[in-house]
Amino acid sequence: MTGSDTELEAQIAEWRTYMLRRKAISGADVDELEDHLRERVGDLTESGLRPDEAFLIAVKRMGRMDELSREFAREHSDRLWKQLVLDPDRDAAADAERRRGLVVMLVCAALGVAAIKIPALFGYGFDESGEFYARNLGLLVLAPLAVYFAWRRRLNAAATGTVAALFVVGAVAVNAYPMDGDSQSIVLSAIHLPLALWFVVGVAYAGGEWRSGQKRMDFIRFTGEWFIYFVLIGLGGGVLTAFTVGVFGAIGVDAEVFISEWLMPCGAAAAVVVAAWLVEAKQSVIENMAPVLTRVFTPLFAVTLVAVLVAIGVTTNAIDVERDMLIMFDLLLAVVLGLVLYSISARDAAAKPGVFDWMQLALVVSALLIDILVLIAILGRITEWGFTPNKSAALGENLVLFVNLAWTAWLYIAIIRRRKRFALLENWQTGYMPVYAAWAGVVVLAFPPLFSFT
Amino acid sequence: MHIAKDLVAASATPLVLGILAEEESYGYAILKEISDRSGGRLEWTEGLLYPLLHRLERLGYVESSWRTPEGGRRRKYYAITEDGQRELAEQRKQWAAVTDALQDIWKATRTLGPLAPPVLEG
C-alpha cells in the first residue's frame, strides 16, 4: 500500500498549496483542515475505500474551496485587509522580521532621498545640473537599493565587498572618463550604467548566490513586480503632484520649484526602495497580476509584431536606424523577452503545451525576424559610415537578443513537439542573464575609451 | 429530513459549546459528535464549523491549543472557558423557553396539525 500512500501524500500536498493561496485561510487554518481531511480519509479507508477514493470523497465533503474560503473570510474579514499591509501569519519571529524589514526599508529610502539631494549642497541642483544627474542618477538611486538587499539578506563580507566594488567601478567610470555632455558615450553610459547596476543589485538580491538558477528566476520575477509597483507609485505620485500644483496655485503660491527640486526627485528615489520592499512584503498580491498581464499582452504583442512585419513586407521600407528608433526596437525586444520570461516563471513546468505556447512561439519568432531586420539595417549603416558608439552598442544588443531569441524559439519548438522538457527553457533564460550584465558592463567601461570618449 | 438553514445556524453555538462542556475536543470529532447526536440529521460542513470555532474563540467562549497526542498528528484542541460555560447556560435558558413554548403550542394544536388529519364522518 506504500504506492497509494505516497500518492495520497502528494494529493494532500497539492490540496495544501491550493488552500494556502486563499487569503482568508491562514497557514494554521490549513493545518487544522488538513488534520480534518486526514481523519476523514482514515475513516473512509477503514470502511473499505481505497485511499484515492477516500481522498476524493473527503475533499468533496469539505465543500467547494470558494465556499469554504468565503465562510472563513466572513469570520476573518480582518485578514483580507490586513494582507494589504501585513502578512496573515502572526508568528512572533515573522513579526520581528517584518518590523526589521520595515525599518531597513525606511532607512534605505531615507538614504535614497539623501543621495539624490546631497549633491545639491555642492552646487549640483536637480534642475540645473542635468549632466551630473545623467551620469550618476542610476548610481544614486540603485546604491540604496543594493544596501537594502545587502542588509535584508545579511550578505556575507565577500559578497558585500563585490557589490560595493562593482558600484565603485561604475561610479569611477562614468565620472572619471572625460566625456562631453553631448557626446554619444555619455548617453550610452546613462542608459547602460543603471542596467549594469541592476544586475549588481541582483547579486545582493540573491544573497550572493547569483549562480543559482532559482535565485535568478526569482530576480527576474522581482524585476517585473518591482516595475509594476514603481509605476503604480509613480501614478499616485502624479496625482499628488497635480493636486499640489493646483491647490497651491489656487492660493497664489508657486509650488513648481518645490515639486521639481524636492517632491519628484525625492519621491522617485524613495519609491525605488519602497517598491522593492512592497514586492517582498506583498508577494502574493502581485503574483496574481503579472501572469494576468502577461496573458493579456502576449497575444496583443504577437499581433502587433506580425503587423509590423507585414507592413515592412508590403511597403518594403527599411527600418530607420536613428538612435531613438534603435532604443525603441531594443525596448520592444526586451518587452517581448520579458513577456516570455514572465510566462515561463508563472508556468507550471509539468503542464502540457497548449494554445498559449503557440502564441508565445509566434511572438518569439516574429521578434526574431524583426531583430534580424534591425541587425541588417544597423550593419548596412555601419559598412557605410563606420562604427560609432551608438551603432556598436545597438549592434551588440541586437546580437545578444538575437542569440537568446533564436535559441528560445528553437527550444520552444522542441517543447511544443514534446521533444524537450519545459525546464530547459527556464535554464536557458536564467543561464543567459550574465550575458546582458556583461554587455551592459562593456558598454559602460570599455566603450568610452574605445571610441575616444566621443 | 432537511433542517432549515436558519435553524442550523441558530443551534450551532449551543451545540458546539454543549459538546465542549462535556470534554475538550477537536474539529473532526465535534463534527462526528453532532452527526451522531442528531442521528445523522444535522450534517455540518467544515465551512460552518471552523469559522464558528474561530468566532467562539475570538469571543472568549472557547480556547484552543495545538497538541500532539502520542503517536499522532499535531492537532488543534478546543476547550470551553468560564465565559463559554456562562454563555452555554444562558443559551440553554433561552432554548428551554423556546422549546417549552413550542411544546405547549404543539399540544394545543395537535388536533389541527397536519400530522393528524381529521377523521371524516359520514
Automatic annotation (TrEMBL), chain A:
InterPro entries: Perm_prefix_1. It comes from Glycomyces albidus. Keywords: Membrane, Transmembrane, Transmembrane helix. The chain crosses the membrane at residues 102-126, 132-151, 158-179, 185-206, 226-250, 262-279, 300-319, 325-344, 356-379, 399-416, 436-453. The keyword Ion transport does not apply. It comes from the Bacteria. This is DUF4153 domain-containing protein. Signal peptide: none annotated.
From TrEMBL, chain B:
InterPro entries: Metal_resp_DNA-bind_regulator, Tscrpt_reg_PadR_N, WH-like_DNA-bd_sf, WH_DNA-bd_sf. It comes from the Bacteria. Pfam families: PadR. Residues 16-90 form the Transcription regulator PadR N-terminal domain. This is PadR family transcriptional regulator. It comes from Glycomyces albidus.
